[in-house]
Design goal:
Layout (H helix, E strand, L loop, with lengths): L1 H7 L4 H14 L15 H16 L3 H24 L10 H14 L8 H20 L6 H17 L4 H15 L8 H20 L1 H13 L8 H5 L2 H17 L6 H20 L8 H16 L8 H23 L6 H8 L7 E5 L6 H7 L3 E2 L7 H12 L4 H6 L1 H17 L4 E5 L5 H7 L1 H6 L3 E7 L2 E6 L2
Parallel strand pairs: 1-2, 1-3
Antiparallel strand pairs: 3-5, 4-5
Helix pairs in contact: 2-3, 2-17, 3-4, 4-6, 5-14, 6-7, 6-8, 6-13, 7-9, 8-13, 12-14, 12-15, 13-14, 14-15
């Protein structure tokens, strides 16, 4: 089923963009200068293997991405199981249902967000959580396993600094459960910290433009993309998470603390903290916290004592509840943007490997479309996000006049980059997104852009998006 979903669901837009980033880097362009990406290098680095293998084998990078992610799921589960098979946790006897639960949570639950950074980060983290479960039970960990756990946790935190919450809460929970505070200073934690520091230093030395070009924009402009904590608390992700957590605690309440549940729930809590601190409310930001909570619930159901009074009925009822919760979560994570109508319209233009650009602030449309039609993305940036963010902030009056004026410098740089890209590589197709803002009027009000667009004719408008084709 997990494999079948990949043929039905659209390929994730952010992963599509990161594949474009990787392709351009391999072609010699400079990250953060010739191509602008708001995230640190780790975001794209994990996808570059798929691009390299795709080129070597003559296959699409999307296909190689799916193959590698499924391989990572299998590898993570195998390593995690091997780390836990000799442990003393009660759930060893429930290996089969736990494996099914893990496959569902790791392979099916991500839905549209399959391959997103949060999905990959959790896959890398599972071996470290397995070691922390053993630590929570007071076990002594062999040196080789310590190294695996350290690398596992480090890779997760390199994706985003926020993920330190998911690791840190699990470490504290393990130390508390074992009543051994030296676990906080266990060698794998030092290894993870050292690797994260080394990664940060590498980024600083190898990509200085990230700190001089990208970070100022991220800290000034992108911080405006936030939702209130109240809105996040009342959202669907938080509701799913709370139901899974409380259901798990309810099943656990009549028995002694299980180290596996302690660590899973603690890490889930940490990722919930990450979700609220990021304050964006994006679906994929919520994936680790919901996935770990569902894993904990599945574990609690699988380890119900059937010999106890009402045990069989409790397990059946809890299993039904777990499946219902998983299905609800899958529907929530499947939210995506359908670009098939636009894609078909571009294909009908009959262009071979069309060069495409889009005037608009939404990054959810152009990149899957460009890659699906075998096109070339012209712009150095994912979307005109700065103009869209500032436009909304000015409309909603969430920034003062001084801040608004300061943002003009960022707006000018974004606009100049767009004009430069069009001049260097004139697109065959221009998409203009007028659904929420009048980007057509903005382009026509700019003398240079208006001049550049004179050679384009409107072919069709689909759901508020104009399709313009360059005329001979």
């Amino acid at each position: 089923m997990a494999v079948g979903l990949r043929a039905v669901l659209p390929f994730n837009v952010d992963v599509s963009w990161l594949l474009i980033v990787c392709e351009r880097v391999l072609d010699g362009q400079r990250l953060y200068l010739d191509i602008l990406e708001i995230n640190p290098p780790m975001a794209g680095a994990v996808n570059i293997i798929a691009v390299v293998l795709g080129r070597l084998l003559g296959l699409r990078a999307e296909l190689m991405t799916l193959v590698l992610v499924f391989g990572l799921i299998a590898g993570s589960m195998v390593v995690t199981w091997r780390l836990l098979r000799n442990s003393r946790i009660p759930g060893r006897a429930a290996a089969a249902p736990l494996a099914v639960c893990a496959i569902a949570v790791l392979g099916i639950l991500p839905m549209y967000d399959f391959g997103q950074r949060e999905h990959l980060a959790l896959l890398f983290l599972l071996p470290a959580l397995a070691v922390l479960i053993r630590r929570a039970d007071g076990e002594i960990i062999p040196p080789g396993v310590v190294v695996i756990a350290g690398i596992s946790a480090a890779i997760t935190m390199c994706f985003k600094p926020y993920f330190a919450f998911g690791v840190g809460t699990a470490v504290i929970a393990a130390a508390t459960n074992a009543r051994q505070w030296r676990i906080v200073f266990a060698p794998e934690n030092w290894i993870a910290s050292a690797l994260v520091v080394a990664y940060a230093l590498w980024v600083y030395v190898a990509f200085p433009a990230y700190f001089t070009v990208i970070y100022p924009v991220a800290s000034d402009v992108y911080r405006l993309l936030t939702s209130s904590w109240l809105a996040l608390a009342l959202g669907g992700a938080t509701t799913l998470w709370l139901v899974a957590v409380f259901a798990t605690l309810l099943l656990q309440s009549r028995r002694s603390a299980d180290p596996a549940l302690v660590v899973l729930l603690a890490s889930s809590l940490g990722f919930a903290m990450s979700y609220f601190v990021q304050s964006r409310g994006y679906n994929y930001h919520a994936y680790p916290m919901v996935a770990l909570a569902l894993m904990a619930f599945g574990y609690a159901v699988a380890t119900i004592d059937r010999a106890r009074q009402h045990g069989p009925r409790l397990q059946v009822g809890s299993s039904v509840a777990a499946v219902a919760l998983l299905v609800s979560a899958c529907f929530w994570f499947k939210a995506s943007v359908d670009v098939r109508a636009l894609q078909d319209a571009v294909v009908k233009l009959g262009l071979q490997r069309p060069k495409i650009i889009m005037l608009g602030g939404a990054a959810t449309i152009a990149h899957p479309l460009v890659r699906n039609v075998g096109g070339v993305w012209v712009s150095r940036q994912e979307a005109l996000s700065i103009r869209e963010i500032v436009r909304r902030a000015r409309l909603e009056r969430t920034i003062d006049a001084a801040t608004s004026a300061r943002f003009d410098e960022y707006l000018a740089a974004e606009r100049n980059g767009l004009v430069d890209d069009i001049r260097k590589l004139p697109p065959d197709v221009v998409l203009i997104d007028d659904r929420e803002a009048d980007w057509s009027a903005w382009a026509q009000a700019d003398p240079e852009l208006a001049q550049l667009l004179k050679s384009y004719a409107l072919v069709q408008t689909i759901d508020g998006i104009d399709i313009l084709k360059r005329m001979p």
